[in-house]
Fold this sequence. Notes:
- The protein is mostly beta strands.
- The protein is 0% helix and 57% strand.
- It is built from no helices and 11 strands.
- The strands form 2 sheets. Strands 2, 4, 5, 6, 9, 10 and 11 form a 7-stranded mixed sheet that branches. A 4-stranded antiparallel sheet has the order 1-3-8-7, with no helix packed on it.
- Strand 9 and strand 10 (104-107) form a beta hairpin.
- It starts with a strand and ends with a strand.
- The relative contact order is 0.32.
Amino acid sequence: xxxxxxxxxxxxxxxxxxxxxxxxxxxxxxxxxxxxxxxxxxxxxxxxxxxxxxxxxxxxxxxxxxxxxxxxxxxxxxxxxxxxxxxxxxxxxxxxxxxxxxxxxxxxxxxxxxxxx
Length: 117
């Protein structure tokens, strides 16, 4: 199993920045991808960004492209989400997810990000 713990959320004004971290423990050697999702009140959980565990490949939702950057530190088994130029519509609970073969996913507990206008 893989355990994931998010940190770095909080309250920020529009235009500000936050960096989320997701620390993985357990069978981390089996991970091949890590993602960030978010869920706003009354809405479905949506994809935000993904990174291969090698770090070679990344992808972003159109809504965050150019503002958010996903990265990872293999030595620390940690994935980051740098969020710049935050907007009120970025307000949500953010979740990290780790993928292991085959099509098995582990989720973190989620962390609140609130962007005030």
